[in-house]
Design goal:
About 70% of the residues lie in helices and about 0% in strands. By secondary structure, it is mostly helical.
């Protein structure tokens, strides 16, 4: 029997949608990070779905739930890197002082200094 909360609701039904969303987001993040790793180590041409799933620790089925193929996963990882760099530049411009050039130059270095490849990685 599943546990009921104080209001008599089945706790599983309340938590499950959030848990599934968290798991899917975590899997996607691991896949994108694995794509960046595999592409860096092997190059795009030698990178395979097998290399990606081995680094991400996900099943082939999970990979294909998130991406159509290797190219789709690579483009998603590329987009994630571009978006992260754009956020870093914007943040640096807003929080740093100095000329426009000094502010913008500080942006891309923020993520690299922390070793970030993708959002949440590093």
């Amino acid at each position: 029997m599943r546990e009921l909360d104080a209001a008599g609701l089945n706790v599983y039904h309340v938590i499950a949608p959030y848990l599934l969303t968290f798991v899917a987001a975590n899997q996607r993040e691991r896949i994108l990070s694995a794509v960046a790793q595999a592409a860096s180590e092997l190059g795009y041409a030698e990178m395979s779905v097998q290399a990606i799933i081995a680094r991400a620790g996900v099943s082939r089925r999970t990979f294909y739930e998130h991406s159509k193929n290797k190219e789709d996963a690579f483009l998603a990882a590329y987009d994630a890197v571009v978006h992260q760099q754009a956020r870093n530049i914007r943040r640096a411009y807003l929080i740093n002082q100095g000329t426009v050039r000094e502010r913008l130059r500080a942006g891309p270095r923020r993520g690299r200094a922390r070793g970030e490849i993708l959002p949440g990685a590093g």
